[in-house]
Amino acid sequence: IRILGAINFAAFDEFTTESERLTFLTQQRDDLLDAEKTLLDTIEEINTTAQRIFLETFGKIRENFITTFKELFLEGDECDLRLEENVDPLEANIEIIAKPRGKRPTSIDLLSGGEKTLTAIALLFAIYLVKPSPFCILDEVDAPLDDSNIDRYTRILTKFSKDTQFIVVTHNKRTMESATAMYGVTMEEMGVSKIVSVRFNED
User: Fold this and answer.
1) pLDDT tens digits along 46-55
2) pTM of the model
């Protein structure tokens, strides 16, 4: 008893205070653990849903890409979109395969400028078909194309223009020929730009 020393009459109050603090901190820790679990479950659910929607959309885009590519090129030409295997689809690389007849490029980089452009247009419209838009602006998309490829390009624009209004920025005369209305910018006076419009109709 002598070794224990004087009695601390405030010990019970200190115990009560520390006990309350321990209870509070334990509750806070439990709340954080519950929040972490809920958050991880939510992330898992979001990832699962995102993967499912992505794979569904990717499948539709792939089908549309093959169809549109064959419209721009020839029926026997090959193309495909492939996802990197054994990787989370949301993180995977997408490989674009385009093989016009008579060519067997190992990479899309080996295609000519015109072929790359037509492949990009096919992919653009493949994505567009999944979620169509009432308006679409194409800025100098046809610049790398020669006359025969321009005809393919304008043909597909005409096809899709039934549901979408296209605003095409171009310097190509053949592209302009396929338009229903034309807007040009001229400068009659130095430093003063003026818009000139022409609307074409069957008459």
Assistant:
1) 999 999 999 9
2) 0.72
**Unique residue bearing structure tokens 């794979």:** 55
Contact 185, 195 (CB under 8 A): yes
| CA–CA distances in Å: residue 176 to residues 142, 169, 170, 172, 191 | 11, 9, 7, 6, 26
Other CB atoms within 10 A of residue 124 CB: 15
Contacts of 36 (CB under 8 A, 6+ apart): none
Query: Which tens digit of pLDDT belongs to each residue from 146-162?
Result: 888 898 888 888 888 88
